[in-house]
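Usage

Read records sequentially. Each one opens with the input sequence:
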Amino acid sequence: LQSLNLDAALPELILAIGAMALLMLGVATSRERGELILWLAVLLLVVAGVFVASGSGTTMLFGDSFIVDPFARMLKLLTLVGAAVALLMSVDYWRGAGGMKFEFPVLLLFAATGMLMMISANDLIALYVGLELQSLSLYVVAAFDRRSARSSEAGIKYFVLGAISAGMLL
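and closes with the structure output:
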């Protein structure tokens, strides 16, 4: 039996497991903890970035459907920086909107995980799994403000368009 070395997939695992842990933390604690969860999400992105940057060479996993090479590492770092910047830019908005909702940083972590999976995809099934993880998270982000009719409309339009394109891709 071949030993499974998951070092190359460690950033994705860190983000996925960390996002699930932050989701449980958000549910178990009070609503005022949203900003704490945002800062923990940024910390998770930084930790994943450190693991991405510490890799070297080209590694293939999962029957060659997952590849990590120097180009993929660069794109992953850009994605992680972009997600962290998006979270940091949202702090002022959420303070003005009456408080951070803990679901927002968790959804962005899942979307970033999907993006990292797409970057390392070496076959269409791996690409599709990453695309769906990213898309489903961003559907909810698009419709996040339930009080706004425009937000709900955007979420529904994005979902319909995404469902049609996912069906065509399959």
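Summary fields computed downstream for this record:
- Residues 70-96 form the longest helix (27 residues).
- The beta strands are 59-61, 66-68.
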